[in-house]
């Protein structure tokens, strides 16, 4: 835990969304953000190239590998992973404090290993959701349709997906993203249920992190 968070003792609820790339995480996360103003997205830092539709500072903080290494050495990441060879992604503590200080809930969109790390770190007031497609063939189709991958990166994502699916049962909820409207409704119901269960007092004890 960063010394800044321990000093300030600012810790709040988190929602962790994870899935193999192409399963519909971004689509469902955007839907949730449009429905729940008190849920704020934790903008990760990444060394991967920006896609045409993405916005720096909103979708990701796009940074160089040098800058990533520097932030890592400074201990500024709550978690980080080399999600694909030479493509680093990490959650900055500064994103979390910013959201919790507003009294809001943090929403993470991270890979499976990152999600497991965050689940262990913020084990109280955390909800973790694993999203999957009905099949690997459908995952491949959706990745192709998204037109963001080369044949090589598509292959990398599919083989990683097979391994990631084996962790699905480690999360609180497994949601199958088949018909989009159904999945959107289901995830909104899940979050409403989580929010009614949340005690509306922020944690004041960081010692278990
Ligand atoms: P991820 O963030 O997990 O990589 P995306 O949200 O980018 O996944 O979704 C991958 C592609 O699949 C996008 O083109 C998206 O529009 C499409 N998609 C998402 N959910 C569905 C669905 N239920 N049915 C059909 N296409 C979908
Ligand atoms: P993409 O390149 O498709 O945006 O994301 C690739 C993968 O990296 C996705 O599974 C996404 O959830 C994950 N990811 C994004 N940000 C982070 C992060 O901060 N930490 C970790 N561990 N994974 C992340």
Describe the structure.
With 209 residues, the chain is of the alpha/beta class. It has one domain: Rossmann fold (3-Layer(aba) Sandwich). 43% of the residues lie in helices and 22% in strands. It is built from 8 helices and 9 strands. It has a 5-stranded parallel β-sheet with strand order 2-7-1-8-9. A hairpin with a 2-residue loop joins strand 5 and strand 6. Helix 2 (25-35) packs across helix 8 and helix 6 (136-146) packs antiparallel against helix 7. The longest helix has 18 residues, at 180-197. The radius of gyration is 17 Å and the shape is globular. Residues 201-209 have low confidence and may be disordered. Adenosine-5'-diphosphate (ADP) binds at residues 19, 21-27, 142, 145-146, 177, 180, 183.
Termini separation: 6 Å
Shape: globular
Largest sheet: number of strands, sense, barrel closure: 5 strands, parallel
User: Which structural class fits the helix and strand makeup?
Assistant: alpha/beta
Strand content: 15-25%
| CATH level-two architecture | 3-Layer(aba) Sandwich
Provide the CATH superfamily.
Answer: P-loop containing nucleotide triphosphate hydrolases
Q: How many alpha or pi helices? A: 8
Low-confidence spans? 201-209
For the secondary structure, the number of strands is 9
Number of spatially distinct domains: 1
- By CATH reckoning, the class would read Alpha Beta
- Give the overall average pLDDT: 89
Bound molecules: adenosine-5'-diphosphate, guanosine-5'-monophosphate
Order of helices and strands: HEHEEEHEEHEHEHHEH
């Amino acid at each position: 835990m960063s010394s800044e968070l321990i000093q300030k003792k600012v810790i709040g609820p988190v929602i962790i969304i994870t899935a193999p790339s192409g399963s519909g995480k971004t689509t469902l996360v955007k839907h949730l953000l449009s429905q729940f103003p008190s849920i704020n997205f934790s903008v990760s830092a990444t060394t991967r190239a920006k896609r045409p539709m993405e916005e720096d500072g909103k979708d990701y903080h796009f940074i160089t590998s040098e800058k990533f290494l520097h932030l890592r050495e400074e201990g500024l990441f709550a978690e980080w992973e080399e999600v694909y060879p030479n493509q680093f992604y990490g959650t900055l503590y500064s994103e979390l404090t910013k959201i919790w200080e507003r009294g809001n809930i943090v929403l993470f969109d991270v890979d499976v290993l990152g999600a497991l790390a965050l689940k262990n770190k913020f084990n109280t007031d955390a909800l973790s959701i694993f999203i999957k497609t009905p099949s690997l063939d459908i995952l491949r189709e959706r990745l192709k349709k998204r037109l963001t991958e080369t044949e090589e990166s598509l292959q990398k994502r599919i083989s990683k997906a097979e391994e990631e699916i084996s962790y699905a049962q480690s999360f609180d909820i497994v949601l199958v993203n088949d018909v989009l409207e159904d999945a959107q409704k289901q995830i909104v119901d899940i979050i409403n249920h989580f929010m009614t269960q949340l005690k509306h007092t922020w944690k004041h004890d960081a010692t278990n992190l």
